[in-house]
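Re: zinc ion structure - here you go.
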Amino acid sequence: MDTRTAEGASLLVTRIGTLAVVPPGPVPGQHMRDVPLVPDAAVLIRDGRIAWFGPAREAPLDEGTVMLSAHGGCVIPGLIDAHTHIPFVGDRSGEFVRRLAGESYLSIMESGGGIRSTCRAVRSASLDELVAANLPRLHRMLEYGVTRVECKSGYGLSPEHELKQLEAIRELDRQQPIDLEPTFLGAHALPDEFDGRPDEFLETIASPALLHEVSRRGLAFFCDVFCDRGAFTVEQARRVLERASAAGLRPKLHADELAQIGASSLAGELRAVSADHLECIDDAGIAALKAAGAVAVVLPGTSFYLGIPHCDARRLIDADVPVAVATDYNPGSCMIESLPWVMNIACCQLRMLPTEVLVACTANAAAALDVHRRTGAVEIGYDADLTVLDVPSLDAWFYTPGRPRVRAVIKAGHVVYRRPEYAL
Ligand SMILES: [Zn+2]
Protein backbone atom coordinates (compact mmCIF):
# COMPACT_ATOMS: atom_id res chain seq x y z
CA MET A 1 0.00 0.00 0.00
CA ASP A 2 2.85 2.32 0.83
CA THR A 3 4.20 3.70 -2.46
CA ARG A 4 7.53 5.37 -1.89
CA THR A 5 9.45 7.31 -4.46
CA ALA A 6 13.16 6.69 -4.65
CA GLU A 7 15.27 9.10 -2.64
CA GLY A 8 15.48 12.40 -4.48
CA ALA A 9 12.89 11.40 -7.13
CA SER A 10 10.00 13.76 -7.78
CA LEU A 11 6.32 12.85 -7.70
CA LEU A 12 3.90 14.57 -10.07
CA VAL A 13 0.24 14.36 -9.11
CA THR A 14 -1.61 14.86 -12.39
CA ARG A 15 -5.16 14.80 -13.78
CA ILE A 16 -6.43 16.75 -10.76
CA GLY A 17 -10.07 17.77 -11.45
CA THR A 18 -9.85 20.71 -9.02
CA LEU A 19 -6.89 21.74 -6.91
CA ALA A 20 -7.98 23.69 -3.81
CA VAL A 21 -5.14 26.18 -3.32
CA VAL A 22 -5.63 26.77 0.40
CA PRO A 23 -3.40 29.67 1.53
CA PRO A 24 -1.20 29.37 4.65
CA GLY A 25 -2.96 29.99 7.96
CA PRO A 26 -4.13 31.67 10.01
CA VAL A 27 -6.75 32.86 7.53
CA PRO A 28 -9.01 35.56 9.08
CA GLY A 29 -12.74 34.75 9.03
CA GLN A 30 -13.74 37.05 6.21
CA HIS A 31 -11.09 35.58 3.89
CA MET A 32 -11.86 31.94 4.63
CA ARG A 33 -14.10 31.65 1.59
CA ASP A 34 -11.36 32.88 -0.76
CA VAL A 35 -9.74 29.63 -1.89
CA PRO A 36 -8.51 29.66 -5.49
CA LEU A 37 -9.77 26.54 -7.27
CA VAL A 38 -7.55 25.50 -10.19
CA PRO A 39 -9.17 23.14 -12.73
CA ASP A 40 -7.13 20.48 -14.61
CA ALA A 41 -4.21 20.96 -12.24
CA ALA A 42 -1.02 19.19 -11.21
CA VAL A 43 1.26 19.29 -8.15
CA LEU A 44 4.98 18.52 -8.27
CA ILE A 45 6.50 17.13 -5.08
CA ARG A 46 10.22 17.09 -4.42
CA ASP A 47 11.91 15.88 -1.20
CA GLY A 48 8.55 15.62 0.54
CA ARG A 49 7.59 19.22 -0.18
CA ILE A 50 5.43 21.01 -2.70
CA ALA A 51 7.82 22.21 -5.41
CA TRP A 52 5.32 23.48 -7.99
CA PHE A 53 1.56 23.56 -8.67
CA GLY A 54 -0.61 24.97 -11.41
CA PRO A 55 -2.38 24.01 -14.66
CA ALA A 56 -1.38 20.46 -15.66
CA ARG A 57 -0.33 21.55 -19.18
CA GLU A 58 2.38 23.76 -17.66
CA ALA A 59 3.78 21.13 -15.28
CA PRO A 60 7.60 20.85 -15.26
CA LEU A 61 8.96 17.35 -15.65
CA ASP A 62 12.11 16.34 -13.77
CA GLU A 63 14.13 13.35 -14.91
CA GLY A 64 12.73 10.19 -13.34
CA THR A 65 9.55 11.86 -12.11
CA VAL A 66 7.00 9.35 -10.82
CA MET A 67 3.46 10.11 -12.04
CA LEU A 68 0.35 9.68 -9.96
CA SER A 69 -3.05 10.26 -11.54
CA ALA A 70 -5.83 11.80 -9.44
CA HIS A 71 -8.28 10.48 -12.11
CA GLY A 72 -10.09 13.81 -12.22
CA GLY A 73 -10.57 13.96 -8.45
CA CYS A 74 -10.34 17.06 -6.30
CA VAL A 75 -7.07 17.47 -4.36
CA ILE A 76 -6.97 19.31 -1.03
CA PRO A 77 -4.31 19.72 1.68
CA GLY A 78 -4.30 16.77 4.12
CA LEU A 79 -7.01 17.38 6.73
CA ILE A 80 -5.94 18.39 10.24
CA ASP A 81 -8.03 17.47 13.29
CA ALA A 82 -6.99 20.12 15.84
CA HIS A 83 -8.93 18.82 18.86
CA THR A 84 -9.31 15.18 19.93
CA HIS A 85 -9.12 13.29 23.21
CA ILE A 86 -7.16 10.35 21.82
CA PRO A 87 -5.89 8.18 23.53
CA PHE A 88 -8.74 6.73 25.54
CA VAL A 89 -10.18 3.33 26.43
CA GLY A 90 -13.50 2.20 27.91
CA ASP A 91 -17.05 2.03 26.66
CA ARG A 92 -19.66 4.64 27.58
CA SER A 93 -22.39 3.51 25.18
CA GLY A 94 -24.65 2.87 28.18
CA GLU A 95 -24.39 6.55 29.15
CA PHE A 96 -25.20 7.54 25.59
CA VAL A 97 -28.49 5.65 25.74
CA ARG A 98 -29.29 6.93 29.26
CA ARG A 99 -28.84 10.48 27.97
CA LEU A 100 -31.14 9.78 25.02
CA ALA A 101 -33.72 8.49 27.52
CA GLY A 102 -33.64 11.87 29.24
CA GLU A 103 -31.11 11.47 32.08
CA SER A 104 -28.95 14.55 32.72
CA TYR A 105 -25.18 14.63 32.33
CA LEU A 106 -24.94 15.65 36.00
CA SER A 107 -26.93 12.64 37.23
CA ILE A 108 -24.85 10.31 35.02
CA MET A 109 -21.70 11.83 36.49
CA GLU A 110 -22.97 11.49 40.05
CA SER A 111 -23.56 7.77 39.47
CA GLY A 112 -19.90 7.29 38.50
CA GLY A 113 -20.14 8.00 34.77
CA GLY A 114 -18.66 10.80 32.69
CA ILE A 115 -14.96 11.66 32.54
CA ARG A 116 -14.36 9.79 35.79
CA SER A 117 -15.51 6.54 34.18
CA THR A 118 -12.96 6.96 31.37
CA CYS A 119 -10.38 7.92 34.00
CA ARG A 120 -10.85 4.56 35.77
CA ALA A 121 -10.48 2.70 32.44
CA VAL A 122 -7.35 4.65 31.43
CA ARG A 123 -5.73 4.19 34.83
CA SER A 124 -6.17 0.42 34.68
CA ALA A 125 -4.85 0.18 31.09
CA SER A 126 -1.16 -0.38 30.42
CA LEU A 127 0.77 1.83 28.02
CA ASP A 128 0.68 -1.00 25.44
CA GLU A 129 -3.07 -1.41 25.88
CA LEU A 130 -3.62 2.31 25.34
CA VAL A 131 -1.57 2.18 22.14
CA ALA A 132 -3.28 -0.98 20.85
CA ALA A 133 -6.77 0.44 21.47
CA ASN A 134 -6.07 3.72 19.69
CA LEU A 135 -3.96 2.66 16.71
CA PRO A 136 -7.00 1.43 14.70
CA ARG A 137 -8.71 4.77 15.33
CA LEU A 138 -5.80 6.61 13.71
CA HIS A 139 -5.72 4.14 10.81
CA ARG A 140 -9.39 4.95 10.15
CA MET A 141 -8.74 8.69 10.44
CA LEU A 142 -6.09 8.35 7.74
CA GLU A 143 -8.75 6.77 5.51
CA TYR A 144 -10.85 9.91 6.05
CA GLY A 145 -8.02 11.99 4.59
CA VAL A 146 -6.54 13.23 7.88
CA THR A 147 -2.75 13.70 8.03
CA ARG A 148 -2.29 15.47 11.39
CA VAL A 149 -4.15 15.11 14.70
CA GLU A 150 -3.97 16.86 18.05
CA CYS A 151 -4.12 14.39 20.96
CA LYS A 152 -4.72 15.23 24.61
CA SER A 153 -4.03 13.61 27.93
CA GLY A 154 -6.66 14.32 30.59
CA TYR A 155 -8.03 10.92 31.48
CA GLY A 156 -5.15 9.87 33.72
CA LEU A 157 -5.66 12.74 36.21
CA SER A 158 -2.60 11.81 38.24
CA PRO A 159 1.02 12.57 37.31
CA GLU A 160 1.76 8.86 36.70
CA HIS A 161 -1.22 8.22 34.45
CA GLU A 162 -1.10 11.57 32.63
CA LEU A 163 2.54 10.81 31.71
CA LYS A 164 1.45 7.34 30.58
CA GLN A 165 -1.14 8.90 28.26
CA LEU A 166 1.43 11.31 26.81
CA GLU A 167 3.89 8.44 26.31
CA ALA A 168 1.13 6.52 24.52
CA ILE A 169 0.67 9.51 22.15
CA ARG A 170 4.41 9.48 21.43
CA GLU A 171 4.31 5.75 20.68
CA LEU A 172 1.20 6.14 18.48
CA ASP A 173 3.01 8.88 16.57
CA ARG A 174 5.83 6.43 15.84
CA GLN A 175 3.59 3.58 14.73
CA GLN A 176 1.50 5.14 11.94
CA PRO A 177 1.75 7.88 9.29
CA ILE A 178 -0.42 10.65 10.83
CA ASP A 179 1.62 13.28 12.71
CA LEU A 180 0.35 13.72 16.27
CA GLU A 181 0.53 17.00 18.21
CA PRO A 182 0.43 16.30 21.97
CA THR A 183 -1.38 18.49 24.53
CA PHE A 184 -1.22 18.15 28.33
CA LEU A 185 -4.77 18.42 29.76
CA GLY A 186 -4.17 17.42 33.38
CA ALA A 187 -6.77 20.01 34.47
CA HIS A 188 -9.61 18.24 32.65
CA ALA A 189 -11.72 17.07 35.62
CA LEU A 190 -11.42 16.31 39.31
CA PRO A 191 -10.58 12.66 40.00
CA ASP A 192 -12.58 10.86 42.74
CA GLU A 193 -9.78 11.11 45.31
CA PHE A 194 -9.74 14.94 45.13
CA ASP A 195 -13.52 15.39 45.32
CA GLY A 196 -14.25 18.93 46.58
CA ARG A 197 -10.53 19.87 46.66
CA PRO A 198 -9.76 21.37 43.21
CA ASP A 199 -6.90 23.60 44.37
CA GLU A 200 -5.09 20.70 46.04
CA PHE A 201 -5.58 18.66 42.87
CA LEU A 202 -4.08 21.43 40.73
CA GLU A 203 -1.01 21.58 42.99
CA THR A 204 -0.45 17.91 42.08
CA ILE A 205 -1.40 17.84 38.42
CA ALA A 206 -0.03 21.26 37.46
CA SER A 207 3.03 21.47 39.68
CA PRO A 208 5.93 23.39 38.11
CA ALA A 209 8.03 20.21 38.36
CA LEU A 210 5.54 18.10 36.38
CA LEU A 211 4.97 20.80 33.75
CA HIS A 212 8.74 21.19 33.29
CA GLU A 213 9.15 17.42 32.95
CA VAL A 214 6.42 17.27 30.30
CA SER A 215 8.02 20.13 28.38
CA ARG A 216 11.64 19.00 28.77
CA ARG A 217 10.87 15.47 27.54
CA GLY A 218 8.89 16.88 24.58
CA LEU A 219 5.84 14.94 25.74
CA ALA A 220 3.52 17.88 25.00
CA PHE A 221 3.73 21.18 23.11
CA PHE A 222 0.55 22.68 24.57
CA CYS A 223 -1.23 22.87 27.92
CA ASP A 224 -5.04 22.93 27.95
CA VAL A 225 -7.52 23.51 30.80
CA PHE A 226 -11.26 22.78 30.93
CA CYS A 227 -12.38 26.21 32.14
CA ASP A 228 -16.15 26.25 32.50
CA ARG A 229 -19.06 26.03 34.92
CA GLY A 230 -18.67 22.77 36.82
CA ALA A 231 -15.03 22.45 35.72
CA PHE A 232 -12.14 24.83 36.62
CA THR A 233 -12.55 28.56 37.27
CA VAL A 234 -10.88 31.37 35.36
CA GLU A 235 -8.49 31.95 38.29
CA GLN A 236 -7.54 28.27 38.46
CA ALA A 237 -7.06 28.11 34.68
CA ARG A 238 -4.91 31.25 34.75
CA ARG A 239 -2.67 29.76 37.45
CA VAL A 240 -2.16 26.51 35.49
CA LEU A 241 -1.56 28.18 32.13
CA GLU A 242 0.85 30.78 33.49
CA ARG A 243 2.92 27.99 35.01
CA ALA A 244 2.68 26.03 31.77
CA SER A 245 3.89 29.02 29.73
CA ALA A 246 6.83 29.42 32.10
CA ALA A 247 7.66 25.76 31.45
CA GLY A 248 7.51 26.29 27.66
CA LEU A 249 4.04 24.86 26.94
CA ARG A 250 1.74 27.03 24.77
CA PRO A 251 -1.71 27.68 26.32
CA LYS A 252 -5.01 26.37 24.95
CA LEU A 253 -8.42 26.45 26.59
CA HIS A 254 -11.69 24.50 26.60
CA ALA A 255 -13.76 27.70 26.77
CA ASP A 256 -17.39 28.86 26.90
CA GLU A 257 -18.92 25.42 26.24
CA LEU A 258 -21.47 25.16 29.06
CA ALA A 259 -21.58 28.74 30.32
CA GLN A 260 -20.00 32.15 29.85
CA ILE A 261 -17.53 32.59 32.72
CA GLY A 262 -14.85 34.60 30.91
CA ALA A 263 -12.73 31.72 29.59
CA SER A 264 -12.35 33.11 26.05
CA SER A 265 -11.33 36.48 27.48
CA LEU A 266 -8.69 34.65 29.51
CA ALA A 267 -7.54 32.90 26.31
CA GLY A 268 -7.04 36.34 24.76
CA GLU A 269 -5.26 37.71 27.80
CA LEU A 270 -2.81 34.77 27.91
CA ARG A 271 -2.34 34.87 24.12
CA ALA A 272 -3.52 31.28 23.88
CA VAL A 273 -2.82 29.56 20.57
CA SER A 274 -6.50 28.57 20.47
CA ALA A 275 -9.77 28.70 22.39
CA ASP A 276 -11.95 25.67 21.75
CA HIS A 277 -15.76 25.01 21.89
CA LEU A 278 -17.16 28.58 22.27
CA GLU A 279 -20.87 27.68 22.19
CA CYS A 280 -21.53 30.52 24.70
CA ILE A 281 -18.90 33.05 23.56
CA ASP A 282 -19.89 36.75 23.96
CA ASP A 283 -18.70 39.93 22.23
CA ALA A 284 -15.94 40.51 24.80
CA GLY A 285 -14.62 37.00 24.20
CA ILE A 286 -14.67 37.46 20.42
CA ALA A 287 -12.81 40.78 20.75
CA ALA A 288 -10.23 39.17 23.04
CA LEU A 289 -9.55 36.27 20.64
CA LYS A 290 -9.25 38.67 17.72
CA ALA A 291 -6.84 40.97 19.53
CA ALA A 292 -4.66 38.05 20.61
CA GLY A 293 -4.66 36.34 17.21
CA ALA A 294 -5.99 33.12 18.79
CA VAL A 295 -7.72 30.57 16.60
CA ALA A 296 -11.36 29.77 17.48
CA VAL A 297 -11.72 25.98 17.31
CA VAL A 298 -15.37 25.09 16.78
CA LEU A 299 -16.57 21.57 17.57
CA PRO A 300 -19.98 21.04 15.93
CA GLY A 301 -19.85 17.25 16.31
CA THR A 302 -20.22 17.66 20.08
CA SER A 303 -23.33 19.86 19.80
CA PHE A 304 -24.77 17.37 17.29
CA TYR A 305 -23.99 14.40 19.52
CA LEU A 306 -25.32 16.01 22.72
CA GLY A 307 -28.24 17.78 21.05
CA ILE A 308 -27.19 21.17 22.44
CA PRO A 309 -27.06 24.53 20.59
CA HIS A 310 -24.18 25.02 18.16
CA CYS A 311 -21.47 27.64 18.41
CA ASP A 312 -22.39 30.61 16.20
CA ALA A 313 -19.47 30.15 13.83
CA ARG A 314 -20.82 32.73 11.37
CA ARG A 315 -20.54 35.39 14.07
CA LEU A 316 -16.87 34.51 14.60
CA ILE A 317 -16.25 34.48 10.85
CA ASP A 318 -17.96 37.83 10.36
CA ALA A 319 -15.83 39.26 13.21
CA ASP A 320 -12.78 38.14 11.14
CA VAL A 321 -11.52 35.63 13.74
CA PRO A 322 -9.66 32.68 12.17
CA VAL A 323 -11.96 29.68 12.73
CA ALA A 324 -10.94 26.00 12.79
CA VAL A 325 -13.30 23.02 12.93
CA ALA A 326 -12.35 19.78 14.72
CA THR A 327 -14.03 16.56 15.91
CA ASP A 328 -13.50 16.72 19.72
CA TYR A 329 -13.41 12.91 19.33
CA ASN A 330 -13.91 11.51 22.86
CA PRO A 331 -15.84 8.66 24.49
CA GLY A 332 -18.44 10.83 26.24
CA SER A 333 -19.64 13.87 24.37
CA CYS A 334 -18.59 13.10 20.79
CA MET A 335 -17.75 9.55 19.71
CA ILE A 336 -17.31 10.78 16.12
CA GLU A 337 -13.90 10.08 14.62
CA SER A 338 -14.74 11.19 11.06
CA LEU A 339 -13.58 14.75 10.41
CA PRO A 340 -15.38 14.82 7.00
CA TRP A 341 -18.64 14.07 8.77
CA VAL A 342 -18.08 16.92 11.24
CA MET A 343 -17.15 19.15 8.27
CA ASN A 344 -20.56 18.36 6.80
CA ILE A 345 -22.24 19.33 10.09
CA ALA A 346 -20.33 22.64 9.96
CA CYS A 347 -21.63 23.14 6.45
CA CYS A 348 -25.29 22.15 6.95
CA GLN A 349 -25.82 23.32 10.56
CA LEU A 350 -23.37 26.21 11.04
CA ARG A 351 -24.01 27.50 7.49
CA MET A 352 -20.31 27.54 6.66
CA LEU A 353 -19.41 27.40 2.95
CA PRO A 354 -17.39 24.42 1.64
CA THR A 355 -14.30 26.62 1.12
CA GLU A 356 -14.62 28.03 4.66
CA VAL A 357 -14.90 24.55 6.15
CA LEU A 358 -11.90 23.37 4.14
CA VAL A 359 -9.77 26.28 5.40
CA ALA A 360 -11.06 25.56 8.93
CA CYS A 361 -9.77 21.97 8.72
CA THR A 362 -6.44 22.72 7.04
CA ALA A 363 -4.77 26.16 7.26
CA ASN A 364 -6.56 27.34 10.41
CA ALA A 365 -6.32 23.94 12.10
CA ALA A 366 -2.57 24.13 11.42
CA ALA A 367 -2.52 27.60 13.04
CA ALA A 368 -4.34 26.17 16.09
CA LEU A 369 -1.40 23.76 16.41
CA ASP A 370 1.29 26.33 15.55
CA VAL A 371 2.45 24.37 12.48
CA HIS A 372 0.95 26.75 9.89
CA ARG A 373 4.36 27.88 8.63
CA ARG A 374 5.02 24.49 7.07
CA THR A 375 1.74 22.61 6.62
CA GLY A 376 -2.00 22.93 6.04
CA ALA A 377 -1.74 24.79 2.71
CA VAL A 378 -0.93 24.32 -0.96
CA GLU A 379 2.15 26.51 -1.06
CA ILE A 380 5.67 26.13 -2.46
CA GLY A 381 7.97 24.65 0.21
CA TYR A 382 5.13 23.36 2.37
CA ASP A 383 4.87 19.71 3.44
CA ALA A 384 3.43 17.64 0.61
CA ASP A 385 0.50 16.37 2.70
CA LEU A 386 -2.36 16.00 0.23
CA THR A 387 -5.70 14.19 0.12
CA VAL A 388 -7.09 12.97 -3.21
CA LEU A 389 -10.90 12.78 -3.39
CA ASP A 390 -13.03 10.78 -5.83
CA VAL A 391 -15.25 13.75 -6.67
CA PRO A 392 -14.22 16.46 -9.15
CA SER A 393 -15.02 19.46 -6.94
CA LEU A 394 -15.32 20.63 -3.35
CA ASP A 395 -19.00 21.42 -3.79
CA ALA A 396 -19.68 17.87 -4.99
CA TRP A 397 -17.92 16.52 -1.90
CA PHE A 398 -19.97 18.52 0.59
CA TYR A 399 -23.16 17.82 -1.39
CA THR A 400 -23.03 14.11 -0.52
CA PRO A 401 -22.44 13.69 3.26
CA GLY A 402 -21.65 10.31 4.72
CA ARG A 403 -19.99 8.77 1.67
CA PRO A 404 -16.31 7.85 1.88
CA ARG A 405 -14.72 10.06 -0.74
CA VAL A 406 -11.00 9.66 -0.13
CA ARG A 407 -9.11 7.91 -2.90
CA ALA A 408 -5.59 8.39 -1.58
CA VAL A 409 -3.57 10.21 1.03
CA ILE A 410 -0.06 11.56 0.43
CA LYS A 411 2.08 12.33 3.48
CA ALA A 412 5.39 14.15 3.00
CA GLY A 413 5.39 13.02 -0.63
CA HIS A 414 4.62 9.35 0.02
CA VAL A 415 1.33 7.61 -0.72
CA VAL A 416 0.43 6.31 2.76
CA TYR A 417 -3.14 5.29 1.97
CA ARG A 418 -5.05 4.43 -1.15
CA ARG A 419 -8.43 2.85 -1.50
CA PRO A 420 -7.83 -0.77 -2.55
CA GLU A 421 -9.62 -0.46 -5.91
CA TYR A 422 -7.76 2.73 -6.81
CA ALA A 423 -4.97 2.04 -9.27
CA LEU A 424 -2.21 4.64 -9.20
ZN1 LIG B 1 -12.40 18.61 24.21
